[in-house]
Every structure is written in structure tokens, then in C-alpha cells.
Design a protein that fits this description.
The two termini are 40 Å apart. This protein is of the alpha/beta class. A 10-stranded mixed beta sheet has the order 9-8-7-5-4-3-1-10-11-12. A two-stranded antiparallel sheet has the order 2-6. Helix 1 runs antiparallel to helix 2, helix 1 (3-13) runs antiparallel to helix 13 (329-339) and helix 6 (128-136) crosses helix 8 (163-179). It contains 15 helices and 12 strands. It has helices at 3-13, 17-26, 59-63, 71-81, 102-111, 128-136, 151-157, 163-179, 201-211, 238-255, 288-291, 322-326, 329-339, 345-348, 351-356, and strands at 37-41, 50-51, 85-89, 116-121, 141-145, 158-159, 186-193, 215-220, 258-261, 292-295, 300-302, 314-315.
């Protein structure tokens, strides 16, 4: 029996998370540490700004009713997943601080003592009370979206946000952390790369250092149907992208900032095969569905954190635990296809793979949402 067939059958038959992990660890797909999972969960389905490249600018998202994860719903999920988790991320695509339950959920999360507690934010709503709660809960890392080094560029992209306010909030967070003599949370600037800001990438790195951030993260813009941003994609201007990203990486090295992740330079990518097998050559070509639980604020479990526009694979309720969904038939089939290197359409337009294989234009197609 082929190793991938054996593994697929073992995973399909796993009665619980412990057996599931044991099968993955035995074949080297995941490490042997029993804390092998990451829970990434939205506590809100809202955002308070309208970024030009974000699906929260689509009218359908603006009009939908607000939905906030309650502490009780969070605890149901946490009790089953967090004993197996190395990371909890309290944001998946929305702004977590728009939730009236953000601070109570943060306090509940702290009681589970997950090694890494993180979240993504646009930084606009980070008040003193929220900063105090972040420090009290011992959050380990906060990723702040900063897509420009100048007020003009930043505010043209992140519509409704104030450049000065966000940077002031970051500085206040860092100052409060230093006043308590706490090493965490670390602060990271996340940068969406596009034609209108690519020339500012090195300056964004310098700005991160000035604000007390210790890391930066770069990734290519995802284009969504209905937003008319395809012309901003750097896939059409690889030399421009390589020039400014290369300078930004040099700036980070000079300033001592960690680059958490960045796309390879286009020039370093071989020409893709006609069937785009380059992105799917490894077994498994993606490990997210083997360790990552992605959930929205109403308890729907998504195939992976990059499954833009895909229907959920199930909903967690008081009667349906997260384990039943995550070990269920739809995830089993997705994992089998990944192990067999038979990518579904979702994978063939994956923004994560696009940032790993920028030479593959098929991966840059617009996403539904």
C-alpha cells in the first residue's frame, strides 16, 4: 500500500484528535508535539474601515447583519481544541475589536494557557482599556495592517482609517508593554503588496522600526471579484515587485527586524509547467487542513484560512462539536485530494500558494466572496 494511501485511510478512520495526530506524526507530516493545532477564529464579522482590496468593501458584506462570537460559544470550541493547540488567533478576516465581546473572549482565552495567542487588526480601535486587556491576557503577538509609509498612500488604501491614529495606537501599545516590562506582545506590520504602494515597502520597514515593531510580513494582494483591483496586482509587473521587495528585505536586515514571511522574488521562480504542478509537487502540497481550524463568528468551519468564497464544511453548535466537523467526510475528502496531489479548484486559486509560487499566474486569479 502506498504511504499516502495508508495515511489517508488512517486519517479517515481516526476517532479523535489524538489518533489523527498520531497518524500524521508517524509519517512525519507534522511534528510529534501533542499541541499540533492552530485555532483561527473570527470574534466578529464586521470591519470598521473599507480597504480598497478587501471583501469588506463589497456591498453584500456591508449589508449583512452583525454577528459576534459570544464567550459561551468560544468556550465550547476552546475546551475541545485548545488543549491540542499551539496557537490561538482571534481573527480570521474581520476586525476583532468591533466585537463588544472582544475583551471578555480575550480573558477567557488567557485561562486556557495556549502558548501563542495572536490576532490581526487594522489598529484603529486599540483604546487604552483594550491595550490593558491585551497586556493582562499575555497576548504574544499582534499583527497590524500597514500598507503605506505615507499618510496619502495609507489612507487611500485603508479607507476610513487615520494614519496618525493607527501609528499612535501602536506606539501607545509598545510604551505600555515597556512600562510593564513585559516582553510581549510582539508587534508585526503586515503589508499587502500592490502597485500603488510597492515603492514604499522599504519605508514601511523603517516606519515599523520607528514604531517599535519587531517584525514585518509581506504578501501579494488577493484580488476579489467586484472590487476592480486586478490592475493593482504585481503579477503583471514582476521586475517592479522584485526591485522594491528586495530593497525592503535589505532594510529589514539592516534594522534588525524579523521578516516573518515574504513571497520569493519573481526572478527566482522557474517558469511553471502548463498544469501548474510546481505548486502541487510535494506530498502534501499544503498542510493547513491537517492542523488548522478556521472558523467564522457564527461557528462555521471553513476548509482553510485561504478558502475565499468557499462554503463552510459544517457548523459547530451545542449538539455538533468541532471535532465532528473537522474529522468529518468533507475534510477527509479534501485531505485525500491533497495527499494524492489532486488539487480542487479552491487550491488552484490559493493566495497562500500564490505568495509561495509567484511565477504561477493561475494562482493569482480573482477570488469569489
Amino acid at each position: 500500500m502506498r504511504a499516502v494511501t495508508w495515511l489517508a485511510e488512517r486519517l479517515a478512520a481516526a476517532p479523535d484528535l489524538e489518533a489523527f495526530h498520531a497518524a500524521l506524526a508517524a509519517t512525519g507530516v507534522l511534528a510529534t508535539d501533542p499541541r499540533f493545532m492552530q485555532l483561527e477564529i473570527d470574534v466578529s464579522n464586521r470591519c470598521n474601515i473599507r480597504c480598497v482590496m478587501c471583501y469588506h468593501s463589497l456591498e453584500a458584506f456591508v449589508r449583512r447583519p452583525a454577528a459576534f462570537l459570544t464567550v459561551e460559544a468560544f468556550e465550547r470550541i476552546a475546551e475541545m481544541v485548545l488543549p491540542h493547540a499551539h496557537t490561538l488567533t482571534l481573527a480570521l478576516g474581520s476586525e476583532p475589536m468591533t466585537s463588544p465581546h472582544f475583551v471578555p473572549v480575550l480573558r477567557a482565552a488567557a485561562r486556557h494557557q495556549v502558548p501563542r495567542v495572536t490576532f490581526f487588526t487594522n489598529g484603529t480601535l486599540m483604546s487604552k482599556d483594550i491595550i490593558d486587556a491585551i497586556l493582562d491576557a499575555r497576548v504574544t503577538e499582534i499583527s497590524v495592517s500597514v500598507d503605506g509609509a505615507t499618510r496619502e498612500t495609507y489612507e487611500a488604501i485603508r479607507r476610513g482609517a487615520s494614519f496618525d491614529q493607527v501609528l499612535g495606537n501602536v506606539r501607545r501599545l509598545v510604551a505600555a508593554r515597556e512600562a510593564r516590562r513585559q516582553p510581549e506582545p510582539r508587534v508585526r506590520f503586515d503589508v499587502v503588496m500592490m502597485r500603488r504602494n510597492v515603492h514604499e515597502l522599504p519605508a514601511i520597514v523603517e516606519l515599523a522600526a520607528l514604531c517599535g515593531a519587531g517584525a514585518v510580513n509581506f504578501f501579494h494582494m488577493v484580488t476579489y471579484e467586484g472590487l476592480d483591483t486586478a490592475g493593482q496586482s504585481l503579477a503583471a509587473t514582476p521586475a517592479l515587485s522584485d526591485r522594491w521587495l528586495g530593497l525592503a528585505l535589505l532594510a529589514a536586515e539592516r534594522l534588525g527586524l524579523t521578516v516573518t514571511a515574504h513571497p520569493p522574488l519573481f526572478a527566482h521562480q522557474p517558469a511553471p509547467a502548463s498544469d501548474t504542478r510546481g505548486a502541487f509537487a510535494q506530498t502534501p502540497y499544503c498542510t493547513f487542513p491537517f492542523f488548522h481550524v478556521s472558523m467564522n463568528s457564527v461557528g462555521e468551519v471553513l476548509p482553510c484560512p485561504f478558502s475565499h468564497g468557499e462554503a463552510p464544511y459544517g457548523t459547530v453548535t451545542a449538539e455538533t462539536p468541532v471535532q465532528k466537523v473537522w474529522l468529518g467526510p468533507r475534510f477527509t475528502e479534501l485531505r485525500r485530494r491533497i495527499l494524492d496531489r489532486d488539487p480542487p479548484d479552491m487550491c488552484r486559486r490559493c493566495s497562500y500558494l500564490a505568495s509561495r509560487f509567484p511565477g504561477d499566474r493561475e494562482l493569482f486569479v480573482s477570488r469569489r466572496n
